[in-house]
Amino acid sequence: MRELGRKNLCYSLLLAAVLMALLTGYFIWMLPSLYVSYTEEQNLKAVRTQHQSFMETGTYDHIRVKNPSACVSVRIPFEKACVELTSKRIAVIITAENADTIELMEQIQSLAKKMTPGAWSRMDDQELKKHSLNWQIEEQIRQIQDRLNTIWEKQIRLPFALEVIDLTAEKELYYNESFRIYPLSDQGMIVETTVFDDNNQYTNYLAVEQAADAIVFTVLPVITPQMEEIRPVVMQSIPMLCAVILMLVLIFSQLYSNGIVHPVYKKLEDVNQHLMEENKRQEMFLGASSHQLKTPITAALLLIDGMIGQIGKYKDYEKYLPKVKEQLLSMRRMAEEILSLNQTCSKLKQEPVHLYELIQAQTASYQVAAAARQLKISVEGTKEICIRTDADLLAKIIDNLLANAVAYTPQGGCIRLMLSEQSVTIQNQGMIPADILPHIFEPFVSGEHRSGSHGLGLYIAAYYARMMGADLRIYNREKRVEAILMFAGKRNS
Fold first, then answer.
1. Is it the case that residue 215 has pLDDT exceeding 90?
2. Domain extents for the chain?
3. The pTM is what?
């Protein structure tokens, strides 16, 4: 059992090591990538949902994005010189009031009309990059910027000088610029632009959709985590994860051992114990058998030696030869009974047996012997009783019980056989001596000397009963002996 337990523990630890290696690899290399992809999908879903909500309600009352303060929607009407800006915290309408600003707004409206996304939504990223309209829009954006600078100079007078120095070196901090196009509706699309620096990934989502009287932009800037940021967090959780895996494997190993290994081992122990007891019984029986065989052999040899030597009364060999024959027949019967116990019972048959018919067949063979002693044998019970058991073993048990009952019932007595689905009960007149009753199922034990009997009948009956899983008991009742054979699964106290 200890060796089996050690093997089970070794296998469990090996399994735990394999699981920890697989899960560690998964958490280090696959999980961060899956998390980044999931985050990108959620951000795209968020800007789409928020843009559609704004298109339906025109407000940010039910904003659902992760970065609500940075999300903003811009509405540019086609017929008004204004721009409507809406976010979670503020809603602003910017209206042009002078000629320069009006001209600027007309320029922006013209650009918005050119950015009608109906045709763009059917293009992929590469086609969009090559589209000639892209160059036209970029050129118009530069014109709007120039126009805006001019208006700024005219309209705003600051109490300080403002000079913008182009820090070209700063541009080198950003790399791997990219963008993707996602369909939004028949008149809309989402543009995803991404740029990296040494620490972060910046992503801007721009939802563009043309309504009947305006074009609407929804902008959502986010910072997408990188796998290098997630891995340290995952690495910190791996020791705890491994400890949990090890604990769970050991718990399940213990449960497996208690639920499967231990019962199997207990069953093997029971089988081994049964074999040891059977071995001991066989040794005891063979020892007793050899001792019992010595008596008739010795008696037969003395008779033969006396007749050969013509010593005294043994000269009359005609008288003593039958006695020698009787001793030899006695040995033969004993040998036959001993050999019958060596028949294998490992392959017991489970077949329907009509109990009444079997009992009738067994009692028929004892009618002559019963009639010689004026014994009455009766069978009580319904003829429809049918049980599943080994018919041959059951017949041998009943035969031995009947032989014992016929032999020990006083002349003129009666023997009753009572049948039920649970048991067979055989009653006969007479009593078993109190000192013999506790040993009645031991070999070579009999109540009184009978010609041709060696005290093996009840021993054999009890042996066969155990083989078929039945229970055989014998009691002294009031002026009668009662043998009860309880069938397998029908025992009671």
1. no
2. 58-155+172-225, 347-493
3. 0.44
